[in-house]
Design brief:
This protein is an alpha+beta fold. It is 16% helix and 40% strand.
Length: 105
């Protein structure tokens, strides 16, 4: 019997936070938060958006979704743009597994 296809979480780069993640194995969505970008610490934004050891993805002002993900012993986050439909969708998918997809590299 064939396994059901997992939903995907897409990343535009191989971010530094993903260096310890096996991109061929699924990750579990542990929790979902809404948060304004303006209230996030620069330390968190740097951690979450750094790639190629120096470049950063630009986080625009406004409401964001922060996903907490796990793969085995590794826990990491991702900041996503927020809209009500996307937020509700992620809330309903807590506990589910996702494949990671890198779209640019």
């Amino acid at each position: 019997m064939k396994k059901p296809k997992l939903k995907e979480i897409k990343f535009s780069h191989i971010y530094n936070k993903l260096l310890f993640i096996d991109l061929h194995e699924p990750v579990q969505l542990l929790e979902v938060f809404q948060m304004r970008a303006e209230t996030m610490s620069q330390y968190f934004i740097d951690y979450d958006t750094k790639y190629n050891c120096q470049s950063h993805y630009k986080v625009t002002p406004g409401m964001k979704i922060v996903l907490i993900l796990r793969q085995k012993r590794h826990i990491f986050t991702t900041i996503r743009n927020c809209n009500p439909k996307k937020y509700i969708n992620y809330i309903q998918l807590r506990g589910n597994y996702f494949n990671l997809v890198i779209t640019k590299e």
